[in-house]
Amino acid sequence: MTPFPEFEVVPAVDVQDGEVVQLVQGERGTEKRYGDPVESAERWVDDGAATLHLVDLDGAFEGERANADAIGRVIDAVDVDVQLGGGIRTADDARALLDRGVDRVILGTAAVENPDIVGEISDTHPGSVMVSLDAKEGEVVVSGWTEGTGLDPAAAAERYEELGAGAILFTDVDVEGQLDGVNTDPVERIAEAVEIPVVASGGVATLSDVRALRDAGAAAVVVGSALYEGRFSLREAARAVE
Fold first, then answer.
1. pLDDT over 80 at 179, yes or no
2. Which one from 81, 134, 152, 209 is the annotated catalytic residue?
3. What is the DSSP string of 6-33?
């Protein structure tokens, strides 16, 4: 089934050391902590979330999954779509998670280093791979946003669609976690380049930002800090894009 048949606002549940955190521009040491992942997940589902965006931040930085217990508790606790990223480096890892109940696996570094992994997973679990393209100053970056790749996000998105990706997650690192507004241009470019859903992430601070990303062609938007800091509620966001 194609994800996001209608535009969605997707709450982020980013897990570090077993707790929900939000980082500024992905920098370790900038985190604000928001408690138990299951409590956060259940809160967002109660508020109407149809999808949750789960990230194992330690996994993203270390290259291997580090919060499997906390993530597993979330998967068991909720009955909505779950997309999971962070430290998923092999097709076997991805398949195990999909068989465990994850709806979509998010691949960033693994997909850049080994593009064929997208097809390997899609062969057995069609449409289940969301390729994460994180961009700094217009260039795709990997390894916890620490290494440049020279790749253009829109060109990369086209390539991964051809390889079998079911969706693209685009994170604008330049504005991520700063609650300072969004850049719509790169989202528009990527959405025009591919037929699969493009999910936008990074910088959302207001309901106007949510609407702007929808109007730029995003199929969904991931929101973290703005929700945790009470800038607006999930219900308000849903109403704003009805």
1. no
2. 134
3. S-EEEEEEEEETTEEEE-STT-TT--EE
Verdict on whether the full-model pTM lies above 0.90: yes
Q: How many other C-beta atoms lie within 10 A of the C-beta of residue 85?
A: 24
Q: 89, 200, 51: which is closest to 97 by C-alpha?
A: 89
Residue 14 is a catalytic residue: yes
pLDDT at 28 exceeding the cut of 80? no
Residue 145 burial (CB count, 10 A): 20
Q: What is the pLDDT of residues 48-62, one digit of tens each?
A: 999 999 999 877 777
Catalytic residue among 14, 93, 103, 152: 14
**What is the CATH code of the structural domain delimited by 8-240?**
3.20.20.70
Rounded to whole angstroms, what are the CA distances from 4 to 19, 24, 48, 146? 27, 27, 14, 30
Query: Quick check: 179 and 225 in contact, CB under 8 A?
Result: yes
Domain boundaries, the chain: 8-240
- The per-residue pLDDT for 68 is 84
* pLDDT tens profile 31-88: 789 899 999 999 999 999 999 999 998 777 776 677 888 999 999 999 999 999 998 9
Question: Left, alpha or beta for 154 (phi > 0: left; psi -120 to 50: alpha)?
Answer: alpha
Distance (Å) of CA 76 to CA 12, 131, 167, 239: 17, 24, 24, 28
Q: Which of 168, 116, 109 is nearest to 141 (CA)?
A: 109
Q: What is the CA radius of gyration of the chain?
A: 16
* Whole-number Å distance between alpha carbons of 108 and 19: 22
Here the tokens at position 38 are 């299951």
| Residue 209 C-alpha from the chain's centroid | 17
